[in-house]
Design goal:
The protein is of the alpha+beta class. It has one domain. 19% of the residues lie in helices and 34% in strands. It contains 12 helices and 25 strands. The strands form 5 sheets. Strands 6, 7, 8, 9, 10, 12 and 13 form a 7-stranded mixed β-sheet that branches. The longest helix is centred in the middle third of the chain and has 14 residues. The two termini are 16 Å apart.
Length: 477
């Protein structure tokens, strides 16, 4: 183990975030006490989520004429219809319900050094769509409507460190997209800010090292989506990591590839030119339509939900929420509930001694700029039952039949619980076998891990699921 104070003095040139990533027990907040703290917060944050009919929602209603599901304040978000035309050969035109939320929220992690080592202030937070209620969230996780007090509730703790005059040193600050299959043009501000002054203690918050958080990223349904996307924005290390050697060959490959100094198989300029070309060539025409107008495209609304006649995709439901420690103690709202668990898988292999990932340029219904880089496989397999073979996602069968010995990361994470109900994806990192045909087609490219890490610090390159998976890749060092 690395001592928080002494090790920093002995290695002045070491990357402090690399040291934080190596620390699992620093004597300040040992990981051994995390479970007891989280259990205590789960007990203290008593909450109850009840599915209700649409008519029982307080403050929400279907707008006359359009049928759009809206809040009486005109804020928060709405559920509307979207007409989509693409150049896909199979199912190239459809209509669907989609969340419209023009507001840009803040997802922020506060950092402070103890003994010279960066610690991250994490929050135990309940969201109505979380599978297990309370998950590990960023310091601040708030929509603009929340932090401007539209709900009339309490203020957001620690927000002043991100938006106030006493904001600390910015480590990362970038707009990032969210789930474009269910959101229209949704963005949030992802921030990491380091402070040196005193920070008020709160029982729902806990300081953790980067290494501790990465350890927790190997547990199902624990580290929420907002934490994962912000962590992906951390800069790649620029100096000695100051950490113990990796445990195995693959961990050494990950660390070496993240450290850089090697030529990727696809230069970054060429990669971005390819993505720009995809955005130019591919067709994505989006048109907002009344939610009522999705009825002729397979969607049916009854008293309790809006669902597709094929039993696929997702359902729009309504819930009533009671929560003891939130800004508002009770409320009701709509949520999108996916029908099946998704698969988000990254196939990786060393090329020229550098670990590369096979990524795709993915077009989603609500994308703000046609396409973003996504994992090798990104889909809900159940949506592809009984479809032509050529319409199945590329590499899906290779991932589903992978040799377990080659699966390096395998965790089920919940997606954003403030808008999605029990939305979950199985996140996988699969090392390609010697017989894998890794020649990318028109929609895939090999990208080094360091390239992905650097692109994650910029807007509209990596989609949110790939950023979530990148946070998991970092744990393999």
């Amino acid at each position: 183990m690395i001592d928080t104070g002494q090790d920093v003095r002995e290695r002045p040139r070491a990357d402090p975030y690399g040291i934080s990533a190596a620390l699992l027990d620093d004597g300040i907040r040992p990981l051994a006490g995390f479970d007891a703290w989280l259990t205590g917060r789960q007990r203290a944050q008593r909450h109850r989520i009840t599915r209700i009919p649409f008519a029982a929602m307080d403050g929400w209603s279907f707008e006359p004429g359009t049928g759009n599901l809206v809040h009486h304040s005109g804020r928060f978000f709405s559920v509307e219809g979207l007409d989509v035309h693409t150049d896909r050969r199979w199912a190239g035109h459809w209509r669907q319900p989609i969340i419209v939320q023009p507001e840009v929220g803040v997802l922020g992690i506060l950092v402070k050094r103890f003994g010279g080592v960066p610690h991250l202030l994490m929050q135990a937070k309940m969201e109505p769509g979380n599978i297990n209620g309370v998950q590990l969230s960023p310091t601040v996780q708030a929509t603009r409507s929340n932090y401007t007090g539209v709900h009339g509730g309490r203020g957001v703790p620690y927000l002043n460190h991100f938006l106030g005059a006493d904001r600390g040193r910015v480590i990362a600050d970038v707009l990032q997209s969210e789930q474009a299959a269910w959101y229209l043009h949704k963005r949030n501000r992802n921030m990491i800010v380091e402070v040196t002054g005193p920070v008020e203690e709160h029982e729902d918050f806990r300081w953790l090292t980067l290494g501790q958080i990465r350890q927790l990223l190997h547990r199902d349904h624990l580290v929420n989506m907002d934490t994962r996307t912000v962590l992906a924005c951390l800069p790649a290390p620029d100096g000695p990591l100051g950490a113990a050697p990796p445990r195995d060959r693959f961990g050494a490959l990950v660390r070496q590839s993240m450290a850089g100094g090697f030529h990727p198989v696809t230069p970054t300029a060429e990669l971005l030119s390819w993505l720009t070309d995809v955005r130019t060539r591919r067709q994505l025409v989006q048109r907002r339509v009344p939610l009522n107008d999705t009825a002729g495209h397979g969607w049916h609304r009854d008293d309790d939900g809006i669902a597709h006649r094929d039993g696929r995709y997702f359902t729009v439901i309504a819930v009533h929420v009671e929560a003891g420690n939130r800004e508002v103690r009770s409320w009701s709202q709509p949520l999108i509930a996916p029908v099946d668990q998704g698969v988000v898988a990254l196939i990786v292999k060393p090329i020229g001694g550098v670990l590369h990932a096979l990524v795709q340029a993915r077009v989603d219904a609500g994308a703000v700029n046609v396409a973003e880089l996504a994992a090798t496989v990104h889909c809900q397999p159940g949506n592809y039952r009984d479809v032509p073979a050529e319409a199945r996602p590329a590499y899906l069968d290779e991932v589903l039949t992978s040799d377990p010995a080659r699966i390096r990361y395998d965790v089920v994470h919940t997606e954003e619980g403030g808008r999605f109900y029990h939305a979950r994806n199985r996140y996988l990192v699969v090392e390609a076998g010697p017989d894998f045909d890794g020649t990318p087609g028109d929609h895939h490219r090999w990208v080094s891990l360091r390239q992905l890490s650097r692109l994650a610090r910029h807007y509209n390159y990596l989609n949110v699921e790939l950023r979530s998976l990148l946070a998991g890749v970092h744990t393999l060092q």
